[in-house]
Design a protein that fits this description.
313 residues; alpha/beta; 3-stranded mixed sheet; 6 helices; 8 strands; calmodulin-dependent protein phosphatase activity
Length: 313
């Protein structure tokens, strides 16, 4: 069970207050019950925070608390540290040593889900407390069976590959035809030259030269058309490859993001925007860190308390 603080202006928050909470209904959007679930420690090395607390815009409710608020809570209840969860950590845990590196951390964040949402790439961790010794054990996630991004079917996924390879084949065929044509023309022209040198008169030579010039013009025109096609196919081949690679990246990112949508401006920022996978995924998933903005009537919630017998209508 997660343990947290109530950080309110009234500065209540004793263990007795926590014990009095009626936990058998949906958590409200404010108050002690809400703060136990949704409050977070401020994210800086000193725990400095004006007034000891501030509104928690990440969760959409409750508060951020700092070192002053924690010290007051610990002293009031004669405690050493607050152990809490409900916040992803890259190493699976975080020691908030706001009193100094030598002292026991005043707040410990523990997060047991490795590779959270299958995209965070974080470790999981648990606390083991035995014989007055506190140990933290880390562990990694277990590989899943392979699935295509966004559960795409094999046919749809393979179309860009097939298109790219067909374009490459067409390019190689046209290129080979161009090379064969050049080689064949060279052989025929050389044979004709040798033949007509031996058997033709001066007039015949002139006629041959005219025919040869015309043949070269036609041959040159055909070669230019073929080379133009080659350039077009080569351009298409490069475009197909680029589109396939970009499509793969976008599909993978969409599969990792909430609602299958990329954050605005991400693609314009380039590769640098997603270098740090953990921070990026945490940012992309930030909408899911908030308390659901749904008002549920308390009378509609049916939660059976321990030892309570079920009643038939």
């Amino acid at each position: 069970m997660e343990v947290s603080l109530q950080i309110q202006k009234r500065q209540r928050g004793s263990l007795e207050d926590i014990k009095k909470i009626d936990r058998y209904h949906e958590p409200p959007r404010s108050g002690l019950f809400c703060d136990i679930l949704w409050s977070d420690p401020v994210d800086n090395d000193q725990g400095s925070l004006e007034n000891g607390w501030k509104g928690n815009e990440v969760r959409g409710c409750s508060w951020f608390f700092g070192v002053e608020a924690v010290h007051r809570f610990l002293q009031r209840n004669n405690l050493i540290s607050v152990i809490r969860a409900h916040e992803a950590q890259l190493e699976g845990y975080k020691m908030h040593r706001w009193k100094g590196s030598q002292d026991f951390p005043v707040v410990i964040t523990i997060f047991s889900a490795p590779n959270y949402c299958d995209v965070y790439k974080n470790k999981g961790a648990v606390i083991k407390f035995e014989n007055n010794t506190l140990n933290i054990q880390q562990f990694k996630d277990t590989p899943h069976p392979y699935l295509l991004p966004n559960f795409m079917d094999v046919f749809s996924w393979s179309i860009p590959f097939v298109t790219e390879k067909v374009t490459e084949m067409l390019y190689m065929l046209l290129k080979h035809e161009d090379q064969d044509q050049e080689s064949e023309n060279d052989i025929i022209n050389q044979q004709d030259i040798e033949k007509f040198k031996q058997i033709t008169q001066s007039e015949q030579s002139k006629t041959y030269e005219k025919n040869k010039s015309l043949q070269k013009q036609l041959s040159r025109s055909g070669k230019e058309k073929l080379r133009s096609r080659l350039k077009f196919v080569a351009t298409m081949m490069k475009m197909q490859k680029t589109l396939r690679e970009e499509n793969e990246s976008i599909v993978q990112l969409k599969g990792a993001c909430p609602d299958k949508r990329l954050p605005k401006g991400l693609l314009l920022q380039g590769k640098e925007a997603i270098t740090d996978e953990f921070n990026y995924m945490k940012l992309a998933d930030s909408i899911n860190e908030k308390m659901p903005n749904i008002q549920i009537p308390q009378q509609s919630i049916q939660i059976k308390k321990p030892g309570q017998s079920s009643k038939k209508k």
